[in-house]
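User: Look at the shape:
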Amino acid sequence: MKTLKFVAYLFYRYYSKGGFTKKIPYFSTISALTLLAFIHFFQLMAFLKMTSVIPTDGSQFKISNYFKMGLFMLPFFLFLMIVIKEADLNSYHYEYKKIKISYIALVLYIILSFSLLMFLAIHNKGKL
């Protein structure tokens, strides 16, 4: 849980300084963590070849697919809102060096996670 809160702090700190997200850093943080968690969920489903549990009807651009995925992600989003409080994120303070190194590690982690998801998706389609 400590690592999750630190990653949330990194996102919150980043979004607090951003242009469009400066007014909604907490919502942006929880959304980013939810998306990252579901990247891992989809990796697991692709690895186990259980993609049928993902609630879509196969078409790419239907509004209903976005709505279904939103409902699918909602419980985890609400869980994160309960576990990670905005007041806690405001109260955390870390050394600049630790934050800088952690930002680099987080970006690499996200890139590698997304790359693994793409690899698994292509592999399961038989194109690799």
The chain has one domain: 2-125. The CA atoms of residues 49 and 124 lie 7 Å apart. Helices lie at 2-17, 25-47, 63-83, 86-91, 96-125. Residues 96-125 form the longest helix (30 residues).
